[in-house]
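Task: sequence design from structure.
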């Protein structure tokens, strides 16, 4: 798109002219609406845009001055107000040429409206291209996507939401998922639990894919499909409602990326940290968590103590290399290397100078992660996040007394953390006595907690008789997903906890000159293993071909079924497997490539019971690729758990994780609070 929908290797400076010299790039401006701005900013930064010939980027609705003799790329949503604004820009002759790109498919009615408006201005000849890009989703990680639809859980569960609004939301989800599949160039088999929004999405997505395959003159899924996911085995798309496992949204994590999201709320791959200088003045600084950052790519899913040691090791290695380079150059710092006469230098020094850009980038990355880790240490100390993580690791072995001790602990200074801990305990203990609940809630109120999210969970459980339970990560199936480093997997969780002393007391002596590696050196290999989360157990079972099917659903079914999904995990190891099995028995499944038979909503009416949703697609009961999508919000805890399962599988499975939005625990608690008020 940024190369005017041409092959970048053959244009924009990527190709050569007749004399063999590199072609000059075509400089242009980029105009986008707020949604498409977020799509771009998640994967590209200003310097990336400049490398692709974009000199300026501006908001569609902002006041813009004419820039003659310059082409403009428009990247906007398919909305009537965007059509009107672009037509106004063309009539005002703001730019020389117009390359129009819509994030999703532009309806025929809007296309005709656009044509009428531009023709009336007499400027339609300046429109060079009109493209449907199918990019109405965010991609924060290589195997992760978000539809950027905030508060979806709140919207679906809001009793005052009109059926028309519900239909519109479901259609938006289906349209965005269609774009994701088209980007992957794959048509998967589809499965979803019966009775909630996931089934409605599955039904409509199946119909949309079927309509495109059978009714379109050009099948977009078969165009340029050589370098996409292997077509020999189609993936299975697993659609899940957030209700099936609420507990994972409240868990405290101990991995670097998930911990950053919990503390700072990653938005568009960027975080903002407030710093306080020696004089007490506060300032905010933003950091980009770039997937091209080698340190971030290696350590995002690692336990925080391991990351702290890695930062220290990287800093030490960098200083050693920098000292060697500056010694050869006879200067005191890398900043002075640019003043050296390269022509008069030795070959060894010239080679050192050529590494200067890479060394500068490494230094910026190390400094950034050092600043983030230092700030995180303060939050861990204030909130006692290490202690909360340990408690949740053995949640089903905790007593009411231990939970009350944590709630009443003045050293744990964040009330939201205490509320999250109790919610997890409450969800993991179905038979908890009302007197015990009242006692804990009184302690939470005394600790300054806002109890409205908990009140909504009570309502949800009473009205819908919802069996919401949470799997304790430390107990369950024998398939361990390693969340700790080193030899943690070789020991039982109970043994580890006996040796894993709280690190909070170590932070008191931390100073700016201290080594992060020294602080964590004694605990780096003593982190408990993490077990499979409910979503990972469901995915494993579905990919192994253990589920059943049938059925269909309408809006009324969603209303009746909200919150009725059985929790996929439970406090005990044996019960969790049974809960997953019961949930899988409710699955409906679809194959958009298979001819529809009968009047069933599912496309595969003749697939044998328990054959699995992908059996008809792949000819057997196993899948090696899966796209997992949660309606109502997802997080980095689930994403990392699925990625670890993928890496440990043999043969290795390929899994993509997505959700309507990526939200941290505080954001999800906010949705529950607003629902309680409604």
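Answer:
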């Amino acid at each position: 798109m940024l190369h005017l929908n041409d092959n970048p290797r053959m244009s924009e400076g990527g190709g050569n002219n007749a004399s063999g010299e590199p072609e000059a790039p075509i400089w242009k401006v980029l105009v986008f609406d707020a949604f498409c701005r977020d799509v771009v900013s998640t994967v590209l930064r200003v310097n990336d845009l400049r490398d692709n010939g974009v000199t300026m980027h501006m908001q569609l609705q902002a006041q813009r001055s004419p820039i003659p003799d310059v082409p403009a790329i428009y990247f906007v949503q398919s909305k009537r107000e965007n059509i009107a604004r672009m037509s106004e820009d063309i009539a005002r002759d703001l730019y020389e040429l117009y390359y129009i790109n819509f994030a999703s498919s532009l309806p025929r009615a809007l296309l005709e409206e656009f044509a009428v408006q531009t023709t009336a201005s007499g400027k339609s000849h300046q429109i060079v291209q009109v493209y449907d890009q199918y990019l109405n989703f965010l991609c924060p990680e290589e195997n992760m996507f978000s539809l950027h639809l905030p508060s979806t859980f709140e919207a679906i569960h809001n009793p005052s939401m009109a059926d028309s609004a519900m239909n519109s939301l479901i259609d938006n989800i289906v349209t965005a998922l269609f774009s994701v599949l088209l980007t992957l160039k794959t048509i998967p088999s589809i499965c979803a639990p019966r009775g909630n929004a996931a089934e409605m999405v599955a039904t409509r997505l199946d119909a949309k894919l079927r309509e495109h395959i059978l009714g379109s003159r050009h099948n977009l899924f078969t165009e340029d499909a050589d370098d996409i996911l292997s077509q020999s085995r189609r993936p299975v798309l697993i659609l899940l409602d957030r209700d099936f496992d609420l507990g994972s949204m409240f868990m405290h994590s101990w991995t670097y990326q998930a911990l950053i999201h919990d503390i700072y709320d990653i938005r568009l791959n960027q975080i903002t940290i407030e710093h306080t200088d020696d004089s007490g003045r506060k300032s905010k600084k933003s950091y980009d968590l770039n997937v091209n950052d080698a340190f971030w790519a290696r350590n995002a899913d690692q336990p925080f103590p391991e990351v702290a040691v890695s930062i220290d090791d990287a800093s030490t290695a960098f200083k050693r290399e920098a000292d060697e380079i500056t010694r050869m150059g006879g200067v005191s710092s890398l900043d002075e290397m640019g003043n050296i006469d390269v022509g008069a230098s030795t070959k060894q020094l010239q080679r050192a100078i050529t590494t200067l850009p890479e060394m500068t980038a490494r230094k910026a990355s190390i400094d950034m992660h050092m600043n983030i880790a230092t700030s995180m240490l303060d939050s861990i100390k204030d909130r006692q996040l290490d202690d909360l993580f340990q408690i949740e690791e053995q949640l089903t072995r905790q007593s009411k007394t231990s939970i009350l001790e944590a709630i009443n602990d003045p050293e744990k200074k964040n009330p939201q953390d205490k509320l999250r801990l109790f919610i997890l305990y409450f969800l993991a203990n179905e038979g908890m006595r009302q007197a015990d609940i009242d006692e804990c809630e009184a302690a939470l109120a005394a600790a300054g907690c806002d109890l409205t999210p908990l009140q909504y969970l009570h309502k949800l459980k009473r009205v819908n008789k919802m069996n919401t339970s949470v799997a304790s990560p430390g107990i369950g199936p024998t398939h361990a997903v390693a969340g700790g480093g080193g030899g943690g997997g070789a020991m039982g969780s109970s043994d580890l906890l006996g040796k894993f002393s709280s690190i909070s007391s170590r932070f008191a002596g931390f100073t700016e000159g201290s080594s992060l590696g020294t602080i964590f050196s004694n605990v780096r290999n003593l982190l408990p293993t993490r077990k499979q989360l409910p979503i990972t157990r469901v995915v494993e079972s579905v990919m192994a071909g253990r589920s059943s099917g049938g059925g269909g659903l309408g809006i009324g079914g969603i209303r009746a079924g909200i919150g009725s999904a059985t929790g996929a995990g439970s406090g005990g190891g044996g019960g969790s497997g049974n809960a997953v099995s019961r949930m899988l028995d409710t699955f409906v499944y679809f194959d958009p490539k298979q001819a529809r038979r009968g009047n069933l909503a599912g496309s595969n009416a003749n697939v044998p019971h328990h054959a699995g949703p992908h059996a008809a697609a792949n000819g057997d009961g196993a899948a090696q690729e899966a796209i997992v999508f949660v309606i109502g919000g997802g997080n980095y805890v689930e994403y990392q758990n699925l990625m670890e399962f993928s890496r440990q599988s043999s043969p290795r499975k390929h899994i993509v994780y997505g959700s309507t939005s990526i939200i941290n625990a505080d954001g999800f608690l906010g949705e529950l609070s607003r629902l309680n008020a409604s």
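The first strand starts at residue 28 and ends at 32.
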